[in-house]
Amino acid sequence: MKIVSGTYGGRPLKTLEGKTTRPTSDKVRGAMFNMIGPYFDGGRVLDLYAGSGGLSIEAVSRGMEQAVLVEKDRRAQGIIASNIQMTKESHKFQLLKMEAHQALSQLQGTFDLVFLDPPYAKEQIVADIEALAERDLLGEEVMVVCETDKAVDLPEEIACLGIWKEKIYGISKVTVYVR
């Protein structure tokens, strides 16, 4: 796997061996960013289930200023730290080594882009978006990008957000919510 485009384009990404995380393939990541960007003029990104960190590193590569990555798995945290080092701009990244619900109670400020790819998708995505909205963590122009199995149907509206775009890539479905 590698960074698809932007400042870090072409640089390799390490991923975790085994089934504890499901890294988004380069192809799906590229298609996802073409759907939502493909480039950004600043902003903050939150990846609540960071895995290898590929999505938020790609977002910073494409113009986001800051990324907060949340990951509970110790081995995945090591991979993320290594991938952040590869950017040679580690000051743009903050890794929170904790469960997503713990991070949600500690986060401050607003985010312009949020990635949600939890292990048990539907109920968790609804709960996470509701918590983000309750805590005023969603910026005015926020995009919340949810990656699920293609069989998962998410609600039309969650909290203050509604579905803007939805596409299927192989076995994955990408759903984008906006205000």
From TrEMBL:
Domain of life: Bacteria
Any one GO molecular function term: nucleic acid binding
Gene3D superfamilies reported for this sequence: Vaccinia Virus protein VP39 (3.40.50.150)
Region (Disordered): 1-24
EC number assigned by the record: 2.1.1.-
Biological processes, Gene Ontology terms: rRNA methylation
Keywords on record: Methyltransferase, Transferase
InterPro entries given in the database record: DNA_methylase_N6_adenine_CS, RNA_MeTrfase_RsmD, SAM-dependent_MTases_sf
Biased composition (Basic and acidic residues): 14-24
SUPFAM superfamilies the UniProt entry points to: S-adenosyl-L-methionine-dependent methyltransferases
Pfam families tied to this protein: Cons_hypoth95 (PF03602)
Enzyme superclass (EC): transferase
PANTHER family per record: METHYLTRANSFERASE
Protein name stated in the entry: RNA methyltransferase, RsmD family
Source organism of this protein record: Streptococcus australis ATCC 700641
UniProt gene name: rsmD
